[in-house]
Amino acid sequence: MTAKMQWSLILLFLCCFIDCQLYQFHYINENKTWTEAQQYCREKHTDLVTVTNMKDMKRLINISAGVEFNIGLFRDTWRWSDGSSFSFRHWNKNFNDQIINSGQCAMTKFDGEGRWTNVSCDNKKPFICYDDKLILIKEAMNWEDALYYCRGHHHTDLISGTKQLQDEEVKKLMNSTSDHTYIGLFRDTWRWSDGSSFSFRHWNPNKVILIKENKTWEDALYYCRDHHHDLVTITNMDDQRWIQEKVKEASTDYVWLGLRYTCTLDFWFWVSDEVVRYKNWALDGQMDDCDMSGAMETGGEHQWKKKRDTEKFNFICSKN
Questions:
Q1: N or C: the chain end with fewer CB closer than 10 Å?
Q2: Which residues have CB under 8 Å from 303's CB, separation 6+?
Q3: Are 111 and 90 in contact (CB under 8 A)?
Q4: 34-48, 200-214, 217-231 — which one is most confidently predicted on average?
Q5: Superfamily of chain region 208-318
Q6: Using one digit for the tens of pLDDT, what is the confidence trace for 214-233?
């Protein structure tokens, strides 16, 4: 499901006949947000469509005639951006975990009493980073930009986890700003609107391809440009999650990305000309040096590390 899937929507209607279930798909040619579509479906039918097999998928493709549409798939599990365990909860009394908002990335922020509430990730707020101490950044950013800032300015991450949030230093920092403040809590993991288990997957297969050949970074770049489009670019967390699933099939410990360091200008860049905003460097992974390019771990946390251009790894090409 992407932001582009706003042109139309598919509804799911469930009829039961004795011991069998017959699913009827209803195409609704109205432009609605994901939340509006879900509400419409639940009021007039059963729910937004759930896809459980390829037979369902083919029926939907035939009905939609190539038009993009909303389905009942959304991210639902709360987690900390630095990987801390999410067991302690401190939501405010108005928090409702059942409300789904397509314009909301399910991020959280402090309220005035130190409790949390979920807001749209597009809202611009100050935020708290941490490394060996807590740092309040008063410049308002959306949640994703705040995360990039914390990870890219020699801090570790957005403030995350019970121990950090209960620190007395947090209260002192909060007293220095009148605005709500972002923390590193966000909603992740896909599930269906009707509660079905998300086991069947049918993501767009045309985005990237893993090449299981060992090449230097430069040879990998030329291969991708000759046979596909380019070495892959990662611009957000969704890209990262999709690509890290692909790299699990690699035969090397790392795979090359389209990430390159320039000594002359002293910065990292994507060969596709995208600005390096989203970052997923390992703590020891971004030491600036000449003749270095970026690679992703094929195991563990799938973080990025700088590697000598002459090393040979599998690599990921983009197709379009």
A1: C
A2: 280, 281, 282, 285, 296, 297
A3: no
A4: 217-231
A5: Mannose-Binding Protein A, subunit A (3.10.100.10)
A6: 999 999 999 999 998 899 99
